[in-house]
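Researcher: Let's do a round of design. I'm pasting the structure tokens now; please hold your answer until I've finished.
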């Protein structure tokens, strides 16, 4: 907030009457009802109203002049966030103190201010924004989480199954309180989904790379495959290769009453340590029908 004396254009030695006259002079030019659609005039009106409200409080003016608080009402320097819990600079739209000085103004202007005060007293509270980080599987399966609000209250949040990264949940009436008698605002919670070590999401499908052994690839097998809801047995076809894609129906993301699939891409993994028997077998192995896995690449190059 700017220096209140500078905002009103008065000296630091100004009397309360001089401050009031300066305020009236500015306000009659800048009031939003007299400048519809003029955002700059509205912002200036807020500034002069806040400055008047500040300087009209003898104790706050004294402490400001003494260098104990700044123009926002914050302590210097004992409480870095004083304004958050000690009232700070009051918004002239949240109380009627800013309108009291117009009691002796002309009736039309006073009526404008009274109407404005009545409207603001019924104004809805501000929406409050939060960011909630959740695990990948919590996003897929749904979960119940709890977040802490700045004033100490705990808020339960139901995470619907299938929620996506960046999606915003709206909790009605869990936001800021109205400055008057209006309804409370909403809590808007942006969801951030942490990546999973091996699952990824493709729309409502889940993708995963599944390592298999050379023997399982060559001879076929049944192996355990992970899904968001637990492990299942997956049949590996005989003669599978790296890149072979298998589909697990209904093991994907549940959304709108329907569940996607899980797409399992096989990865043939050789033993980490040398296997003499395997090396000896492959050295002597002669395929019955010779094949060249790079033949198509050679033909197109």
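Researcher: That's everything. Go ahead.
Model: Designed sequence:
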């Amino acid at each position: 907030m700017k220096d209140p004396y500078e905002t009103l254009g008065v000296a630091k030695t100004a009397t309360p009457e001089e401050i009031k006259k300066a305020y009236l002079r500015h306000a009659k030019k800048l009031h939003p009802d007299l400048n519809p659609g003029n955002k700059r005039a509205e912002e200036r009106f807020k500034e002069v109203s806040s400055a008047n409200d500040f300087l009209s409080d003898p104790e706050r003016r004294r402490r400001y002049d003494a260098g104990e608080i700044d123009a926002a009402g914050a302590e210097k320097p004992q409480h870095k966030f004083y304004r958050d819990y000690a009232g700070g600079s009051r918004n002239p739209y949240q109380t009627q103190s800013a309108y009291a000085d117009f009691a002796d103004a002309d009736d039309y202007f006073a009526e404008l201010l009274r109407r404005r005060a009545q409207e603001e007293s019924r104004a809805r509270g501000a929406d409050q924004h939060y960011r909630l980080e959740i695990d990948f599987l919590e996003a897929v399966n749904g979960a119940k989480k709890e977040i802490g609000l700045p004033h100490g209250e705990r808020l339960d949040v139901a995470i619907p199954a299938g929620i996506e990264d960046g999606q915003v949940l709206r909790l009605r009436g869990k936001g800021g309180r109205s400055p008057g008698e209006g309804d409370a605002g909403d809590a808007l919670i942006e969801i951030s989904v942490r990546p999973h070590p091996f699952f990824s999401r493709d729309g409502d499908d889940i993708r995963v790379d599944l390592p298999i052994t050379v023997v399982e690839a060559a001879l076929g097998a049944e192996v355990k495959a992970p899904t968001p809801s637990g492990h299942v047995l997956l049949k590996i076809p005989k003669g599978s290769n790296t890149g072979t894609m298998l589909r697990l129906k209904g093991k994907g993301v549940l959304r709108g009453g329907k569940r996607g699939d899980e797409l399992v891409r096989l990865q043939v993994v050789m033993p980490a340590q040398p296997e003499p028997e395997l090396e000896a077998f492959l050295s002597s192995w002669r395929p019955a029908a010779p094949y060249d896995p790079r033949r198509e690449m050679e033909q197109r190059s």
